Amino acid sequence: MPLFRSKAEAKVREAGYDPARLPPGQYFTEKWPVLHAGAVPDVDVSTWTLRIWGDVENEVTLGYDELKALPATEVVADIHCVTRWSRFDAHFKGVHWRELATLCSPRPSAHFVIAHAEHGFTANSPLAAVEDEKALVVYEADGEPLTPEHGGPVRLVVPSKYFWKSAKWLNGLEISSIDKLGFWERYGYHNDADYWKEERYSF
What we know:
Layout: H1 3-14, E1 27-28, E2 49-54, E3 60-63, H2 64-69, E4 73-80, E5 85-95, H3 97-104, E6 112-117, E7 122-126, H4 127-131, E8 136-141, E9 144-145, E10 155-157, E11 170-176, H5 183-186
Parallel strand pairs: 1-5, 2-11
Antiparallel strand pairs: 2-3, 4-5, 5-8, 6-7, 6-11, 8-9, 8-10
């Protein structure tokens, strides 16, 4: 076993977790590191909206209070960053895709979601990843409103992928029949982002 792996697994074991939960190349942290490109945007929740459009029957635009009025879901999930940190049992509260799908009615040809965020940032995922039971449009983390540093007021959380797919400062979900590379994917990050396969980069 590589030395890094043995040390990383030992730290997981010391914290009382099963080392099998740690994907290859990752290290365990109890903190939630803050990482992003560019400055943290100043988003006014009174004017913030989430637009859902594209390969849907009904385009939808929701304000912050309208989003929070939808049925809420709470999940506990492990999150894994491409920069190699992993955090276990993160608590999130938000709206599951099934609630949004009821409003927008995706067409049968819809297979991908392109998350749009402040600063023109985008992140693409298969619709199936967003349909996962632990994927949410999130407005609370660890029992508190989502802070700007962690993507507040609203971010996408897609725990089945490396965490760059979980777009911060979310303001749109484009539903598409075809895949469209997101910001980091255009800079060489792996399009599939499967952390169990260490799909970090496409080169």
